[in-house]
Write a structure and sequence with these properties.
- It contains eleven helices and nine strands.
- The protein is of the alpha/beta class and 262 residues long.
- Helix 2 (48-66) packs across helix 3.
- The protein is globular, with a radius of gyration of 18 Å.
- The structure holds D-glutamic acid.
- D-glutamic acid (DGL) binds next to helix 3.
Length: 262
């Protein structure tokens, strides 16, 4: 039997698990290596130059060590900067994660959309261009959050996070009133779906939350081609660049489709 395709999923921390979860759902036949660059977390606090200088060689080392057939950059803060650098440096196919502005603007009824991302992602030229090209007449509000990724990470690692702290980061997404108010919020950081239930509960009014993870999973599956048979080798590995041991395994297993982490 041929060995399962190996997919490397990369993020600054645990947020990329929200993308991994969707990929595992559509491709249970693959073997997953999840890399959290926690030694450099949060990416949202670094400059563009620092992120390029960190991520491009690190991905090269990971490709050399793990020989994946495909790499997913499950981080908007990195993807909005490094994809062209990665594609010109390495021949393996890459799938990135960028703000889902096009589908959000296509589905908004009030034509008021907010993009909630890290301070880095909302400042990017790449994000501005997505708005220019795909706003489709919508009024788009960019909201850069300094803390939400860390709050999501704290929640997943079992620490208490106050509702008030989440609500403060979320509040600027809600603009206008009546028939003109925001009806769609793009989750432009892979950490934020970890907080989805609390975001929905703390929102001043109901909105559609746009998470691109299912679309990313479909793209990955299309690039891989038809699924092979699921084999016992289709396992999962979790790597933290800080080299910390993963005491979180039990909480993380559902994101890996229940696989036991190596
Ligand atoms: N998960 C990352 C993203 O999608 C960023 C979090 C961070 O490191 O600031 O943007």
């Amino acid at each position: 039997m041929s060995s399962p395709p190996k997919i490397l999923v990369f993020d600054s921390g645990l947020g990329g698990l929200t993308v991994l979860r969707e990929i595992v759902r559509v491709r249970p036949d693959a073997h997953y290596v999840y890399v959290a660059d926690d030694a450099f977390f949060p990416y949202g606090h670094h400059t563009e130059e620092q992120i390029i200088a960190r991520v491009v060689p690190l991905i090269g080392e990971l490709i050399a060590r793990h020989a994946p057939v495909l790499v997913v950059i499950a981080c908007n803060t990195a993807s909005t900067l490094v994809m062209s650098h990665l594609r010109s440096a390495y021949s393996v196919p890459f799938v990135g994660t960028v703000p889902a502005i096009k589908p959000a603007c296509a589905s908004s009824k009030t034509k008021r959309v907010s993009v909630l991302g890290t301070k880095g992602t909302v400042k990017r030229e790449y994000t501005r261009r997505l708005i220019e090209d795909f706003a489709q007449g919508c009024d788009v509000t960019l909201v850069g959050s300094a803390e939400l990724a860390s709050l999501a990470e704290a929640t997943l690692t079992g620490n208490d996070v106050r509702d008030a702290d989440i609500a403060t980061e979320l509040a600027p997404c809600f603009v206008g009133d009546g028939a003109d108010r925001t009806d769609t919020v793009v989750l432009a950081c892979t950490h934020y779906p970890l907080l989805l239930e609390r975001l929905a509960r703390l929102a001043p009014w109901p909105v559609d939350w746009i998470d691109p993870a299912p679309a990313i999973a479909r793209r990955v599956s299309a690039l891989l081609g038809s699924p092979g048979r699921q084999s016992d080798d289709a396992g999962a590995e979790m790597i933290f660049t800080s080299q910390r041991p993963h005491t979180l395994s039990r909480a993380l297993m559902p994101f890996f489709g229940g696989r036991v982490l190596a």
